[in-house]
Amino acid sequence: MATKIYGASDDLIEVEGDVRGEVGCYGTDDREHGVLLVCSDGTILEAKYGKGDAGVWGVTVLKRGGLFLMLNLCDDEDATPCSDVAHFGDGLKWVYAATEWERVK
Fold first, then answer.
1. Contact 63/44 with Cβ under 8 angstroms?
2. What is the DSSP string of 22-69?
3. Among 20, 18, 68, 13, which residue's Cα sits nearest to residue 43?
4. Mean pLDDT of the region 16-43
5. Which pTM value belongs to this model?
6. pLDDT at site 100
7. How far is CA 80 from the centre of its chain?
């Protein structure tokens, strides 16, 4: 089963498909960065609410893994979902989410 990852409302990230669940992420629009999502295929995403000063979730691909297929972009607050959506092929095993993280340079 394919998997998709996207933001919902203003405080949730949804994962649907081979992996199912949601991550509560309150106040990501107030932070320097969003929520880091690390997937079993090696894909790394960053999701943050408030894309372009709109009520839209932005999803950024930091690293593409073997099952990552595409990222559908969204700029419409009235869209369903009002979020960029990351799509994966069959076989994703897990997704870890970190609401507090820091890049070491």
1. yes
2. EEE-TTGGGSSS-EEEEETTS-EEEEEE-GGGSS-EEEEEEE--TTEE
3. 68
4. 87
5. 0.92
6. 84
7. 15
Q: Residue 30 corresponds to which tokens in the numbers above?
A: 């107030």
Q: What is the pLDDT of residues 83-102, one digit of tens each?
A: 999 999 999 999 999 988 88
**Residues 2 and 87: beta-carbon distance below 8 Å:** yes
- Which H or E element spans position 85? strand 85-88
Q: How far apart, in Å, are the Cα atoms of 56 and each of 26, 39, 40, 71, 75?
A: 14, 22, 26, 15, 7
- Residue pair 86/5 in contact (Cβ under 8 Å)? The answer is yes
Domain range summary for the chain, segments of one domain joined by +: 3-98
Distance between CA atoms of residues 84 and 14, nearest Å: 12
